[in-house]
User: Fold these one by one.
Assistant:
Number 1:
Amino acid sequence: MSAVATILRYGIRESMRRRVFLVVFVLTVAFLALYAVGAAFAFKDVGNFADSAPEILDARAFTGATILGLAMFATFFLGTVLAVFLTLGVVRGDAERGLLQPLVVRPIGRSVLLWSRFAGAAAVSGGYVLVVYGLAVAITAIAGSWWPDHIVTPGIGLAAGVVIVAALSLLASIFLSATAQGIAVLMLFGGGLTAGLLGEIGKALDSATLREIARVASWALPFEALYEGGLRALISNTEGLTGAILSLGPFGGAQGAGPLLALWAVIYLAAVLGIGAAAFARRDL
Amino acid sequence: MSKAAFEARGLGKQYGATTALSGVDLTVGEAELVGLLGPNGAGKSTLTKIACGLVHPSSGEATVCGHAAGSSPARACMGYLAETFRFPAWSSAVELLELHQRLARSEGGAGEPAELLEMVGLADAADVRVGEMSKGMQQRLGIAQALIGRPRMLFLDEPTSALDPAGRRVVRRLLEQLRERGVSALLSSHLLGEVELVCDRVAILSGGRLVAEGRPDELVRGRGVAVETGSGERLFEEAGREDAPRIVSDLVAAGERVYGVRVLRSSLEDVYLDAVGEDPG
């Protein structure tokens, strides 16, 4: 078994023994059950006028896009929390507790150790958001017979966003203690989302300054841009009054990702992991 | 001259304004057990961590089995037990050893974990989780972990600090067995008696500098001859073992009754306290 597979297995076994997956599973089932109830009632409540004048406002699309956007936000948040906790204290925290040194002295290399822990956290948290997003789409379709304009793109955006959060969290774990790392990454996550909302406000108010702040923040923290791009893909083909009204809402007003975002996200991820490996290699343990 | 299992040349480490190590030269030969002594903050753990590649030296160089300390080949031929270590509480003893087998690419096979647990007296605790083990059991497990992959050089930082006398004896015998197999060890400890019993040589660090080094019997010095006579104990400070017959003869000739003779030698503790400049008060 390769060193990467060994470290991956070690991380997954740790999460299973610590009942991380059990807790996440139970809470996710609870979230999806609540979402299913909410979606059923939402579609039922708009059912009276949903079929009356669809040429003016497609109430089913409006409801579906709004509640699925909400589900995406919740999924993104849950995936981020999972990514942060799976990488919590991986370097400095474990070194301070004496857990890291017995592993680092083995002939596997610090970079391999770091990247393996990233791969484990990214696979679990990225896979998690894909599954939850997929189930949310299915629940929405069953509850309201509505499908988003794009099904796969939003999920990929969410998963990619969470993977970048995992990389940032791992980088933070090299420099910060576990508590400071968790606080820093969750505040960064909140800051990124706030910048995205600022951009929407800037768009509504036609403020070039606010839009520019949001644009810079999106490049600096591309997980937000990936999430926003995913949100946009939900309704990117919806036109007319429905599309116009959705674009005013908190989820429908998201900006499209743009062709360079995927490339930038890959470069950004490689840079974060490269900086992390270099910093870890230099660190005294 | 034997090939060095560990060699440090001019090793130094600076943490900001604090000097943890300064110009340390130390060699551990093949199948040699070297005790590393020194007060808290003397640099023992820093030296061990540099040897294991956990800390980068500010100056000098170190090699393990002929490879630069911290390099992959150096780490492949060594075992390490840290002073303050912890293993995941959720892991069982055998799972932990299997993990380290894979990371060390050990060729010991499926029987290696059980064999090592037997060696450290934990044969019955293979399936016990680390979180349920006493500190002493964890330390024994740590020693077993350091022995994964049949390392040629062991760095053991306070390996018996949590063990009872029986546990210390087990570790002493284990180290002696390993030496017979050709394994070398640098054993950092505060327990002078233990070091004196098992180690071939002793190195004493103080303030980051190597202040004494040698075989225990070389380091200890004569402190005279004490003779118990009818008029009380008389001490001949400058005398040695070879002077004892003459002293007794002279005393008897002078009409003294002699009841006993003791050749006095300084203990390793005396040597240690002299070297590190600590007055026991």
Number 2:
Amino acid sequence: MSVIQVDHISKSFGTTHAVQDISFSLHAGEIIGLLGPNGAGKTTTIRMILDILKPDKGNIAVLGGEMNEEKKNLIGYLPEERGLYQDITLEKCLGYLASIKGMQKEQIGVRLEELLQRFNLAEYRNKKVKALSKGMQQKAQLISTFIHKPKLVIVDEPFSALDPVNTKVVKELLFEERAAGTAIMMSTHQMNQAEEMCERIILINKGRILLNGVLEEVRRQFASNDLIVRTSQDIPADIPGVTSVSKFNHHIRLTVEEGLDANSVLGELIRRGIEIEHFSIATPTLNEIFISAIEEASREK
Amino acid sequence: MNKTLRVFWFEYVRRVRTKGFIFAVISMPLLLVLGIGLALVSARMQTNPLPIGFIDQSGFFADAEIPSNGTASIVPLVDIMRFEDMDAGRASLENRHIQALFIIPAEYPEDNQIEAIALDKPGENAYSRMRNFMRSHILTSTDEGIAQRIRRGNDITVIAFDGSRSANMRDWFVVLFPFLVGLLFIIVINISGGYLMQSVVDEKENRTMEMIVTSVSPEALMAGKILGNLSVGLTQLLIWLFFAAAGVFSMQFFFGFGYAPVIMPVHLVLLFGIIIPGFVLVAALMTLVGVTAASLREAQQVSILFTLPMVAPYWFAGAVLQNPNHPLAVLMSMFPLTAVITMPLRTAITDVPNWQIAVTAGMMVSAAIIALRLAARIFRMSMLNYGKRTTLKSIFMPERSGR
């Protein structure tokens, strides 16, 4: 069963078409990346899924049907615009946010303790939120997203303001939740994070979906004929089938003719006595796919 | 506990536990007690515990009974000593056995003049004690009923210019009721409205709103906020009333003065038909201002548009009391923002026709419901407009707002 099923939704603000005919689904135990440049329509899409905004057209089913008050208790949301109550203690703030997710006092106490320990915030529980650093507040907000063990989590830039150690903690938490069957939608500009965490990506630009699919399939779709080689020696330019040789970041990129077998190039390099440290078929990074797809869409327009 | 109640409790506890609230609640009665205490100390300092003496040269007080010290009072009573001749009186004064010597001359029955001799300025209690002693003796020759009426003073009945209504000045609660209601209304709505507006603006400014509305519906959130912040104002009011009641009780118990208020049926009609809907109306308007404004300062400036009409009836209070059925008074008593103060004012001084009270109550309830619905709608539209104000165009052309 889809946790989120979005069918042909559109949304306009005056003459601005924020979202146009978008459809996708998200299943339990899956992490999906919602990617796109600023103003692409990601936040509007998320807000429609969360019933903050109503779509002008199309349907959205969340957890098997229309959104209602009970379902809100099963959703965790980390918005892009972060915010916590500044003038109360961390414990009171998180306790309140958990209580309006339908948790009882006893449940809150146990779960809050567990998450505060995990995020190294236990000693700050009685500090006012405004006394915490930006990173700590970010962690606190993540706690409020997960405290009620939601079935659907939507996180917008979950790693911003986090140091590498805490980024790792958050990743582990997201993976754990996924393993437990939670459906996770992650909106981010950090392509390396999306690449590492998402099985599927949805790339939106100007309110329309440009790409929607399993990450590996998308990569294949954007794959080039390039080979990546790492060696301490120079590679001659006269290797049969190789059209260009360029160096980048301690690696050498070989652009080859279409249909050429990579093994033949590898064999030729070994035959010529070049010591190979690394040899791979170049797969585009998500960042490259992102830029390429956006540029292609702009050209088409 | 449903979510409205959770929001209510959070808003309530969050406010009443602040130092500012506790200080505001305690400071008022403390200042009052301090003021009364200072007045009592000042009164005590102006008294002198030494007895007073008198010489009756007129013979008018020859058989006057010298009163005992009587019961305890804020200002202590002093002994009165009779002297038969001037030398004895002066000697007592010089030896500081008495603080003042009053001489009642032979001509007193004709000219009502007496003299006082003292080494230092006598205490205020010396004069009042002598005055009361003389008045009591003069009244002994008068019929007891008449004497009591003279001691009690006049019963004044205030009658409306059009003769439609009258009120005895001793029923002070009836006369003071509209003023008290108005004053309390202004206090509570200022406290609650301020908190309410701040609460809404805060959530927009600190960006918690987006997360909150994914947990609670905008309607439940708004209802919880209104209930919570109104309760803060009411709590403050109840605590003050408790102190006031304790003060009145203490006055009655220790000093024997003070009156018990009288609640009339019309007061209940005013409470449920006009004052409570009035609270809801203003609370909804404050929410509306809070959610549409870009900042707290802007919200406070705009809220004057509602608070000014609320206090406007005080500017016209004299005219309303003089002619409570003047068209302006009737109009103000029926207009929702001015009705809360004007209608109780009119009911205190005239018999307001039942239809007018019914129409006003109907209008108040309707206005409160409309304001709540409008506030809920605009709340939903504007809650995520961080740092922006909501324009009238976007309110009345919702398709452009996108919500």
